[in-house]
Design a protein that fits this description.
This protein has 427 residues and is α/β, with parallel strands linked by helices. It is built from 12 helices and 25 strands. Helix 1 packs parallel to helix 9 and helix 5 packs antiparallel against helix 6. Bound molecules: flavin-adenine dinucleotide (FAD).
Length: 427
Amino acid sequence: MKQIVIVGGGFAGINAAKELGKNKDVSVTLIDRRNYHLFQPLLYQVAAAALSPAEIAAPIRSMLAPFSNVRVMHAEVTAVNTSDKTVTTSIGDFSYDYLIMACGAQHAYFGNDTWENYAPGLKTIEQATEIRRRILTAFEKAELAADRQDVKKHLTFIVVGGGPTGVELAGAIGEMSRYTLAKDFHTIDPKLTRIILIEAGSSILNSFDEALASRATRDLEKLGVQVWTSSHVSKIDDDGVEVDNERIQASTVLWAAGVYAAELGNTLDTEQDRRGRVIVEPDLSIKNHPNVFVAGDQANFSHQTGDPLPGVAPVALQQGRFIAQNIGRDLKNLPRKTFSYLDKGQMATIGRGRAIVETGKLKFGGFIAWLTWLVIHIYYLTGFRNRMAVMFNWAWSYLTFRRGARLIIDKSWRMYPEESQQEQNVS
Ligand SMILES: Cc1cc2nc3c(=O)[nH]c(=O)nc-3n(C[C@H](O)[C@H](O)[C@H](O)COP(=O)(O)OP(=O)(O)OC[C@H]3O[C@@H](n4cnc5c(N)ncnc54)[C@H](O)[C@@H]3O)c2cc1C
């Protein structure tokens, strides 16, 4: 029986495993360093205290339990050895006849790695709860601050990067400060809350139609977000940011400006692009190794349009399934097919009741777009329980302006861990 190893239980890996699970002629091992599949498109809702982590994550083991030929390993893969067809992991080596790499991507700070401490990115549950902690803590500190300048600094939020994640984060903070939290504080004036979305390019959401991107800008402004385009961040520290030589004091800076493919791709010893994505062949295998495939955010597939496909969930999902089907064709001695992405469109949401949707020639925004966004996200959420829980939470927060997960949680049990860190550094 052919041994198939899948690295990563994200959109690509899970869908490859489910497809291969139907083929009883193969034995599949899926390895992930997390024991859960994460629905990243809703991470910003955890960061903005609208949803709890468990509502956007599901155990990989239970998702794949119906497939008796698929086993799940909770381990970190550290290297791929294409010459002897093994992967090295934290729990030992695994041999493969076919390997599917689907490790996703991580944040990139373009050589300014120290910025990460001051401006966390949003890619994992840990980062989302850390961002939530920082946002809620900033409001608490503002409420306590005696000095006007300090209040202003705590109530200034900067989001770097005007793609969908930055827009969603900035919109969610705007909504939180203007509506939800405003009723809970008695000292601070929510109108003082300043949210700045900084984008280096000439417009936000540059993959969208220009008119829709402008509409999103107006929607953000209604939520109190200032959109600064053609602006370059040159420094981030614990006091705020420097943008084109202007210093802005802010206690919360968030990073949504760039990603780099998972570093495990480096061990494949094959061509990568400048963002670390592995260049794949038309069938998603890598050059000289037809039994090694790369899918999702980790892959650079440019055969369809000349440009790499975007790092979005439908690309990963379709590629995962496609690879599994091609392996099935190999086993039946049928020729492989070449991958072709079926693009159903894109969407982004800007706070409560506002979104933009682009699908084929159809382009629209506003409440109907938001409903479309909502239905699609709930549909793709893994697990029935999650769907119901998320729907209930959204309905509740929509009708009442309340947010269910406003918890400041920190491992250190200190109120302001950055201060306890400073104390430790001093002592
Ligand atoms: C905040 C945010 C919002 C987004 N919004 C949208 C959206 O609205 N619409 C959309 O279509 N897309 C969105 N995306 C992008 C989408 O989530 C990704 O394109 C998609 O998750 C890529 O799937 P993947 O399978 O390639 O990787 P991932 O889903 O990232 O999965 C990779 C998996 O590999 C595992 N892994 C990595 N390295 C190792 C290792 N060394 N050993 C073991 N396991 C490993 C990880 O634990 C993870 O489970 C968003 C992404 C983010 C971060």
